[in-house]
Write a structure and sequence with these properties.
By secondary structure, this protein is α+β, with helices and mostly antiparallel strands. 28% of the residues lie in helices and 23% in strands. This is Fructose-1,6-bisphosphatase class 1. One of its GO terms (molecular function) is fructose 1,6-bisphosphate 1-phosphatase activity.
Length: 334
């Protein structure tokens, strides 16, 4: 009996596609997946491990941090800071980049992550996940400066997420399509289960937080009204809505069976052009979606082309089935 292709085997075989590869990247990704196994284990133990509930602190975005947010953040920092592969890290949970300890050599990569996305779902048994983006440091071997992380999403060398759902899954891409792995708990290894995930160009399923409807701009109002009109409206067919409220879970559903996801621009707070953060939510997810044949836009421009201006900047996000995303973009042009 064959156990299948392990994630470590897959990573090593994939990095051989890159001429001159030193193995640094394979090492980096392997260490990151160890952190994801640890975080998943804490999430699944939940109340048994005493890890649920608020930590009593706020992050840079003014959001209350959960105990599991901080445990997950620490797990990634400590799994990665000793490796010698990184020049710095940026996390949703930290105001400033995390510096690599003095005694450790500086590497050539930058890691950006949301340690546990879907905060409102952490304590209630709903799927959450870890999102990550890997960039090349502009200058290898020295401490990364904040400006080094401000690269457009097209520069990502790898993006992915771990989903702590009905099982622990790891999905990633290095630019050769999107592949998914499922944790086999009996041996503690992620095994390849989803090869070359693809998003159909069309869909009848959408994901949006409808309670924000009154704050949306006209193009999104029009698009969603048309979907909700179903067979009786201009689209002449019914659409189904799903909203988990954890981006990882909503994007995973789209990678598995198609759909469109919107967290659009809204007029609630002029300081916040959207809810989701560009560098460690929108960019890695947009990279995966494009690699799977879908599209990702703010409504007026491709997300991966945005030149970031700050570490925690927010953007409107519309991603998934190509024809639906293009329709929303066309409504913005109108
Ligand atoms: P978080 O990083 O604080 O968890 O916020 C991001 C999450 C996404 O996972 C999800 O798509 C969105 O916020 C849900 O927002 P809402 O509370 O409007 O449903
Ligand atoms: Mg998040």
């Amino acid at each position: 009996m064959h156990i299948g292709t392990t994630l470590s085997q897959f990573i090593i075989e994939e990095t051989r596609l890159y001429p001159g590869s030193t193995g640094d990247f394979a090492g980096l990704l392997n260490d990151l997946t160890t952190a994801c196994k640890f975080i998943g284990a804490q999430v699944y133990r939940g109340g048994l491990a005493g890890v649920l509930g608020s930590a009593g602190t706020d992050n840079v975005q003014g959001e209350t941090q959960k105990k599991l947010d901080l445990i997950s953040n620490e797990a990634i920092l400590k799994s990665m800071d000793w490796t010698g592969h990184l020049a710095g890290m940026v996390s949703e949970e930290m105001d400033n980049p995390y510096p690599i300890p003095h005694s450790i050599p500086r590497g050539k990569y930058l890691l950006l992550f949301d340690p546990l996305d879907g905060s409102s779902n952490i304590d209630v048994g709903i799927s959450v996940g870890t999102i990550f983006s890997i960039l090349k440091a502009p200058i290898a071997g020295r401490d990364a400066e904040p400006a080094d992380f401000l690269q457009p999403g097209v520069e990502q060398v790898c993006a992915g997420y771990a989903l702590y759902g009905s099982c622990n899954m790891l999905i990633y891409s290095t630019g050769y399509g999107v592949n998914g792995f499922t944790l086999e708990p009996s041996i503690g290894e992620y095994i390849l289960t989803h090869t070359q995930m693809r998003i159909p160009d069309d869909t009848s399923e959408y994901a949006i937080n409808m309670s924000n409807q009154r704050h949306w701009q006209e193009p999104v109002q029009r698009y969603i009204n048309e979907l909700n009109a179903g067979k009786d409206g201009p689209r002449k067919r019914d659409f189904n809505m799903r909203w988990v409220g954890s981006m990882v879970a909503d994007v995973h559903r789209i990678l598995c069976r198609g759909g469109i996801f919107l967290y659009p621009f809204d007029l609630r707070d002029p300081q916040k052009p959207g809810k989701l953060r560009l560098l460690y939510e929108a960019n890695p997810m947009s990279y995966l979606i494009e690699q799977a044949g879908g599209a990702a836009s703010t409504g007026t421009r491709r997300i991966l082309d945005i030149e970031p201006t700050s570490l925690h900047q927010r953007v409107p996000v519309i991603l998934g089935a190509r024809n639906e995303v293009e329709r929303v973009v066309a409504y913005h042009r109108d």
